[in-house]
Specification:
alpha/beta, 42 helices, disordered C terminus
């Protein structure tokens, strides 16, 4: 290739970069125009309501539809007005066009059509949607049809919905249940005949529906189903159940029992339920007494107290009964005084520990001996959180004096209780009790166990990478090596390495170009699909799964309150926030307790994953969606595992405690599930550096580039990594990393694989816990032959702080590389293994060649380039090619990533955009070489088994807002 041709290539690539920037600004203009059009559509609709002669021409139909739907939610329109609007849209031909589009080959067009038709109701529209639902094969498209039909349910529509269940997957059935629960109330339909059908899918939907929706005619069907299932489980033949796995029939059995117990007020007070060998049946049977709520119910539950873990559930049910009918507390006190077993007394002690105030008022004057016994029993069984909280809040008066008098000898008898008082009691309480403030010894960190096989594998890779280029050079230049002088051989070798470097970067850029194009088209498709879903769709009952947001926190006092406030105010139907304080040495925990007015509680949880010890749990009864867990320091992965143990939702969202999510980030992320038929096992969002932004109480006030050069260089790097790499690899079905700052996982598969990789859970630690988990659950899903997806959603944004000092930055990058090396070593069986399909062949192959081994070659190549330039032995052609494959292609990728990032929002000013493009040039002169150097250092650190995490000095969100004048 001649110099002129290379120059033309450089000009073309730079022109493409400029075109990307031009398209970015065109998008900004179009977004502003779209917002204006939406506003004008709303005004036209209002004008039409006031004057039927008003025109709705020259406004985009979708904008008119959205404006009408929004207005109809805000104002209850009468039937005559609705009829006028329906006629106006029908006369425009919009509805007929949408009906035709229901038969389109494009799934997006079919979804768009259903979104338009959902706003109107006529016989023709209803008929068209029913026919489309009957013929549709893709369940994710059926969900859109269901949404369009939800306000049009009659006998015919209901029959079509039920028929669509046959052969469907579980996630589709759940959404049908939610829609029917919400919209069946107004339907005059013959439900009994429909739900007496023999198909297993219909039985499951019916039983699940009865758990959330009450109709008296359902009870006889449930009782018949209960008898049929129990007969089958006892050995009687059944045509339907004999074809299914026993686990599926058992699940149906549990759901029938739950419906009868919880919805249809049927106490399961038979010994075959209450004393069953199956713990799940015992729990369901115990729950059945909640609706009765009498003293006889409490006594019946107590009869089965046996000192097992099930007593914890029995105590919870009795506590709920007492909360509903507090007059029963007096009866419980009498019961404690009677002749009952030790297990029964222990169970009631746990129940009464939540009402220390009642116990004190009832017994302090009438029966101090019993009061002492009850408090002693609480201390012995460890139910002391409410007791200590009561002592702290009532430190003056006769009641306080008596209580301190009772617990003083107990503290001397029980060292664990004494230590607990030393940790959580107030100073004046400790003074009266003559107890010193307890300072627990820091947990000793175990030394990493040497992994000999890993070390040998890495040494082989290191040796091969060092000798590969010299050996390849010798093999390809044997004749010339014999004839040439030493200097000529050296010159030839330097030129050879530079050419190799050009070829290597051509391969890298080829891969990046493919993933960039995939990412570009995926980002546009994702945004188009997200805009089809209004909040009425997304907030439909059971449409989106519930989420437990877990935020590990270690020394986050500067930003923890704003971060948690941000999380609590997210726009999502059902979620909880679990903050796990991982042994912080600063005031992180104190900030949380004081700001959210938390109280320490004894909270039960299932320790499904082994973790470091949990020290305390804090709640505020007026903030039920927030839980704060204090634990021994064990690292971020261990803190996430603790959060998983405490979680109650279907999906787990792990974020950094110093991160801020956009208000609709979870909606953007999870709404993508409605556009796929595969099981969603992991999702990742877009991570945006927050440095330079102005933050106030968890809300972003303004967006600017950070002032420091280091943070700006990281910003352009993040743009490329997320907007190109993540989206592209997701398109190839090979996404193997979901950022720990904002990642979401299915809880079921997390539990199956044992949670995040830690010494406590799986006897091995890693500093790349986020990527390792994705690789492990992907491997599990592939081995189980599941149809699954791991995806990246670019318009779900999380803002996080990047390091602004060199020490923290170098530690972070060293840790990232060590984590990558450790993961590739731990899962090396997957690398280039066709048995693991595209994740093994493409994903693991890419990370192995370009991310782990690549830097070892790059370091040699950079040295050769420097020597070649200094000695003047590189031709103009080679220099231009190096310029093309490194700097020019890098500029183009940066411009493309900027364009993708602003697909739907305007994040930065035009001035900041050009500053970032300047960074794309600057980074080629030292920055990229430095990154490669630290990747090599990280590789070498992996040989020394270094598992240290490394701390990052944070500025904190509060300091990003300028002081008021």
């Amino acid at each position: 290739m001649s110099d002129r041709q290379i120059l033309w290539l450089i000009i073309i690539v730079l022109a493409l970069a400029f075109l990307c920037l031009l398209m970015l600004f065109i998008k900004r203009f179009n977004n502003k125009r779209r917002l204006r059009s939406q506003k004008e559509a709303e005004q036209r609709i209002i004008a039409f309501l006031n004057d039927s002669q008003s025109s709705m021409d020259q406004i985009r139909s979708i904008d008119l539809i959205n404006a009408f739907v929004k207005l109809n939610k805000e104002i209850k329109l009468d039937q005559e007005t609705l009829r006028r609007i329906d006629k106006a849209f029908a006369d425009s031909g919009l509805c007929k066009k949408a009906i035709r589009s229901l038969r389109s080959f494009s799934t997006i067009k079919r979804k768009q059509a259903s979104s338009i038709l959902s706003a109107f109701d006529s016989v023709d529209i209803r008929k068209a949607l029913v026919e489309a639902l009957k013929k549709e094969k893709s369940e994710h498209v059926k969900i859109y049809f269901l949404n369009a039909l939800k306000n049009k349910i009659d006998q015919q529509v209901l029959q079509a919905i039920i028929d669509s269940i046959l052969g469907s997957k579980r996630y589709y059935q759940i959404r049908i249940i939610g829609i029917l629960k919400q919209h069946l109330l107004s339907v005059e339909a013959h439900l009994q005949n429909i739900f007496r059908r023999p198909e297993m899918e219909i039985k499951e939907v019916f039983v699940d529906l009865t758990n959330v929706y009450y109709r008296p005619e359902f009870k006889p069907i449930l009782l018949d189903e209960l008898r049929t299932i129990e007969a089958f489980l006892d050995g009687s033949p059944n045509e339907t159940f004999s074809k299914e796995k026993k686990s599926r029939v058992t699940r149906l059995y549990y759901q029938v029992l739950r419906a009868l117990a919880n919805v249809y007020d049927t106490p399961l007070n038979k010994p075959e339920y209450l004393a069953s060998q199956n713990p799940e049946i015992v729990k369901i049977a115990t729950d059945s007494f909640l609706n009765v709520g009498s003293m006889s119910s409490i006594k019946t539950i107590l009869e089965y107290a046996d000192g097992s873990d099930l007593d914890l559930h029995r105590a919870q049910v009795i506590t709920k009964i007492l909360e509903k009918n507090q007059a029963l507390y007096a009866e419980v006190i009498k019961l404690i005084q009677s002749q009952i077993s030790a297990d029964q007394r222990t169970l009631l002690a746990q129940v009464i520990s939540h009402r220390i105030d009642y116990l004190m008022l009832k017994l302090m004057n009438s029966d101090k001996r019993l009061l002492k016994q009850m408090i002693a029993l609480m201390v012995e069984k460890g139910h002391t959180a409410d007791l200590i909280e009561f002592i702290n809040q009532n430190r003056v008066g006769e009641m306080s004096d008596l209580l301190l008098q009772i617990i003083k000898p107990l503290a001397n008898q029980h060292p664990k209780f004494r230590d607990e008082l030393g940790l959580y009691a107030f100073d004046d309480v400790l003074t009266v009790l003559d107890i010193q403030r307890y300072k627990p010894e820091p947990a000793k960190k175990s030394a990493p166990i040497p992994e000999i096989r890993k070390t040998r594998w890495l040494l082989r890779i290191l040796i091969i990478s060092l000798v590969f280029l010299p050996v390849l050079f010798v093999l390809t230049h044997i004749p010339s090596l014999i004839e040439n002088t030493d200097y000529d051989n050296f010159t030839t070798y330097i030129v050879f390495i530079n050419k190799f470097f050009i070829g290597y970067y051509l391969a890298v850029n080829f891969v990046y170009l493919i993933v960039a194009l995939l990412s570009f088209f995926r980002a546009r498709k994702q945004l188009k699909l997200y805009r089809l879903k209004n909040k009425g769709f997304l907030f439909e009952n059971m449409m989106l799964p519930s989420i437990s947001i877990i935020a590990p926190a270690f020394n986050e006092e500067l930003s923890i309150v704003e971060s948690v406030n941000s999380l609590l105010n997210l726009d999502y139907p059902e979620f909880e926030v679990i903050v796990v304080n991982d042994g912080s040495k600063d005031k992180t925990l104190r900030q949380l307790i004081e700001h959210f007015q938390l109280e320490r509680k004894n909270v039960s949880y299932v320790s499904a994953i082994e973790t470091k010890a949990v020290k305390a749990v804090y709640q505020n009864p007026y903030l039920p969606s927030l839980l704060v867990v204090d634990k021994e320091n064990g690292g971020k992965a261990d803190a996430l595992n603790v959060g998983i143990n405490f979680s109650k939702c279907e999906y787990i969202c792990g974020i950094d405690a110093d991160s801020l999510l956009e208000k609709d980030a979870l909606l953007s992320l999870m709404s993508s599930m409605l556009d796929h038929d595969k099981i969603t096992i992991a999702l990742g969002g877009n991570i945006v550096p927050v440095n330079g932004y102005t933050i106030d109480m968890g809300n972003i006030e303004s967006k600017q580039l950070p002032k420091s050069l280091l943070a700006r260089l990281q910003t352009i790097e993040y743009l490329r990594a997320f907007n190109i790499s993540r989206g592209g690899f997701a398109g190839l079905g090979s996404l193997l990393i979901v950022s720990g700052a904002f990642g979401l996982f299915e809880k079921r598969i997390l539990s199956e694989v044992g949670g995040y990789l830690t010494e406590s859970s799986l006897k091995k630690g890693t500093v790349g816990e986020d990527m390792e988990l994705v690789v492990r659950i992907t491997r599990k899903a592939l081995e189980q032959k599941l149809r699954f997806r791991v995806d990246y959603i670019g318009n779900a944004r999380c803002y996080t702080e990047v390091p602004e000092n060199r020490k923290s930055f170098f530690k972070q990058r060293n840790r990232w590389q060590r984590g990558l090396v450790d993961i590739l070593s731990y899962h090396r069986r997957m690398i280039f293994n066709p048995g693991y399909k595209s994740p093994g062949l493409i994903g693991m192959g890419y990370y192995f060649i370009f991310e782990m081994v690549g830097p070892l070659f790059e370091l040699q190549a950079y040295l050769a380039v420097m020597l070649g330039l200094i000695l003047g032995i590189l031709s103009v052609e080679i220099i231009l090619l190096l310029l093309l494959v490194t700097m020019v292609m890098g500029i183009f990728m940066s411009a493309l990533s900027l364009m993708i990032s602003e697909e739907d929002v305007t994040s930065l000013s035009a001035k900041d955009v050009f500053k970032l493009m300047l960074m794309a040039i600057v980074e080629n002169f030292g920055w990229r070489q430095l990154i490669s150097l630290f990747r090599v250092k990280g590789f070498l650190s992996s040989l020394r088994e270094t598992n240290a995490w490394g701390e990052m000095n944070r500025v904190g969100f509060a300091s990003t807002k300028p002081p008021s004048k």
